[in-house]
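User: I'm putting together a small comparison set for a docking exercise, and I want a reference complex before I start. The sequence is below, and the ligand is pyridoxal-5'-phosphate. Could you produce the 3D structure with the ligand included, as structure tokens?
Assistant: Of course. I'll restate your input first, then give the structure tokens for the complex.
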Amino acid sequence: MRPMDEEQLRECGHRMVDFIADYYKSIETYPVLSQVQPGYLKELLPDSAPNQPDTLDALFDDIREKIVPGVTHWQSPNYFAYYPSNSSTAGFLGEMLSAAFNIVGFSWITSPAATELEVIVLDWVAKMLKLPSEFLSAALGGGVIQGTASEAILVVLLSARDRTLRKHGKKSLEKIVVYASDQTHSALKKACQIAGIFPENIRIVKADCSMNYAVTPGAVSEAISIDLSAGLIPFFICATVGTTSSSAVDPLHELGQIAQAHDMWFHIDAAYAGSACICPEYRKYLNGVEEADSFNMNAHKWFLTNFDCSLLWVKDRNYLIQALSTNPEFLKNKASQENSVIDFKDWQIPLGRRFRSLKLWMVLRLYGVENLQSYIRKHIQLAQHFEQLVISDPRFEVVTPRNFSLVCFCLVPPTCEVDNGHKLNYDLMDSANSSGKIFISHTVLSGKFVLRFVVGAPLTEEQHVDAAWKLLQDEATKLLGNVVQ
Ligand code: PLP
């Protein structure tokens, strides 16, 4: 194969698209969760790269025989684990076009369309979410595409840290404190590690199980008061809309008020559930976002946009730029020097960046807001349906009320079980996943092993939810039959 040949690309490209379309057509024939053992691929591939080129045919054979068995099929309609990672025709086409241009859009000048399209589509989505006008590019704020929510959280934490250190002096690093709940994603802890926040200054406030695992403002206030009395400097609160374990929603308004009272940065992580808030009936979950300094949601989770595409908005972009900009001679150019353009290199960790706005633009244009809303609603209705199925079987229980498309449930252990049903539910998950027919995941809430069933894959229909439930019921019957009552 030549490095770049139009005719060859046309022919091979058609073959690859056919291969991918066939893959999607037959996706249900594969085990959803890959069943290979660790190290399986080393046994199948040579120790070193080929000296002479291989043929595309040989490669396709290897993909079918050696790679696909080691793939867990996130696009399968029977995928119900973690949170989803959507692919769509529009998102996929956007990825193809982005790969074709293959620009590295760190500064406006390196591809003006990439920067300007990103600004426009982030404004579009901000308006769909009814974010306050301060988050739009016409104001002091604006949106930017990060690779992941983890990067989004890291860059705002760095912005907040530097804002605080400018106010209190560099030597205050050892005194600045971060607040979050024990349900906040581990991405925050990692961000703190990278940002040099002292480990003893990370306050993990226990979420309230009676509030469905949202954190209470009182608990956060109390932690802040104790720290203030000890001479520490509270500087960052992270709230979540749609926590990873149980899709809990923290009280945004109250937490925002607390942050404001203490001149703290207030970030809202809505990586999964943010997408649902484009529907008027779910927008209430963002009430209080007016108080936030920054907000993120992953378009690559539940918004039909292929990975990676994490959307971050800030109220004041200058804090990002102050924390992250560099200006080496070799990147200087007229537009940047005149301050007439955005250079997204100054809003993120790496220098290089892909043309990711293309796929989001194509998703928004080729589906439109109404279809995206219907897509979300359908998944939430299917989750509601699953929840009803669980409720209808007295052997099971729903563990926390459902907010979006995640149902947290478990098989109720017979009274003689000493481990609160941990082994029973682990075995249920394991047997269901080992069947290859579905993939679900788990969490632990208040010491209890809980199964998570998330509807969010683009191909999932009611029949898949029903079949998954039937499988779980059958496996439960087998397991309970083995339990000595
Ligand atoms: N925040 C929340 C609430 C999440 O659920 C997740 C992942 O599921 C993340 C952050 C991390 O996302 P990413 O993989 O984009 O860093």
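Residues 83, 148-150, 185, 187, 240, 242, 244, 269, 271-272, 298, 310 surround pyridoxal-5'-phosphate (CB under 6 Å). The mean pLDDT is 97.
User: Thanks, that's exactly what I needed.
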